[in-house]
Specification:
44 residues, mainly alpha, 2 helices, 82% helix, elongated
Length: 44
């Protein structure tokens, strides 16, 4: 896992109360959406 993603994931977990499977799942959904939006924005 790249350092930037790991750093963002740990920050996300600390801001949301813990390092559980649920928080990891929520981060993965957030990260995927953020990445997809960046891809879409770069097309235009």
């Amino acid at each position: 896992m790249p350092d930037k993603i790991r750093k963002d994931a740990l920050r996300w977990a600390s801001e949301r109360g813990g390092r559980s499977g649920r928080v990891a799942y929520q981060f993965s959904r957030f990260w995927s959406g953020k990445t997809q939006l960046a891809i879409e924005d770069s097309k235009y």
